Predict the 3D structure of the following.
Amino acid sequence: MTTLRDLKPTKKQNVKEITDELGLRMTNKYDWRFSDESGTYLIFEWLDDMLEKDGEIYFLDQATDWAEKNRSTALTVQINRAYAVASVILQAYYTKAPLNVAIIEGVRRVVGLRETSEAHLRQLDLQKWYPHHRDENGYIVVIRGKPQPDGFGAYEDDQRRAKLTGSPPPPPPSKTVELTRTAIYDRDPQVVKDVKRRAASGCCEFCGKLGFPTPQGTYYLEAHHVIPLNLDGADTVKNVIAICPDDHRRAHFGEDRHELRDRMIWDVLHKLYPDDTEYYEALDLQSAQIRKSEKGPTKLEDVRIDS
């Protein structure tokens, strides 16, 4: 019988290796959940969050609680990631779908007021996991190798629990929740402020041209997500540059938009953050996937910066 100790990872698989094994498209290696329309779900879970009782290995989906508890201190990407994991588990729960779980072992610590983590080992579990039922506190219990009973209905169980507790049942997952678009498209105003500070000279970070003057005596630039939000780009300063309106429109609609995106990654952002080569290699891979799919951005990002 497999025990929790047996699940300790023995190697550090990279995220692309795991998504390739499952036939999933890797959007961003810093995501902790991946899915496709066929119903293949992948999430990443820490080994020390897993429990063992009566021969069953399981964990509780407390990602939403973590996001709410840490909303004032965590990075936006951490909050979005937590909600995204919760939405995938919820979708699998209502559809009786299995989850693929990559198990992580490493170090988690609190630096200042913010929780940080470092994975030392990471490995895909070959056994499927199943969002099985809700516990007495309403948390979804995800059990290794144990599907929901044939007669179990998540919607019906939620209604039954609501009658017993007198509280409204949780809303069923919508398409928006499934794809976590609301969380992903939310823009962090702090990112805009930080990029504004970085471009304090008022010059376009791409072409170097000074933005046009504003009545406030500043210079006008626009914030551009190099890997767009609608294509799973991160809402962080490492993916956002301050550029002039001409370059912004060219980056979205120009014939050479793919070349511009690659230049922004390597000639602008990587030079700003030279110690993050691995991160920009991941962005470069996303850029290549965008070019290959021909699903380039069709909307401007309506976030502007007066520098």
In short: Residues 76-95 form the longest helix (20 residues). Residues 173-186, 296-302 have pLDDT under 50 and may be disordered.
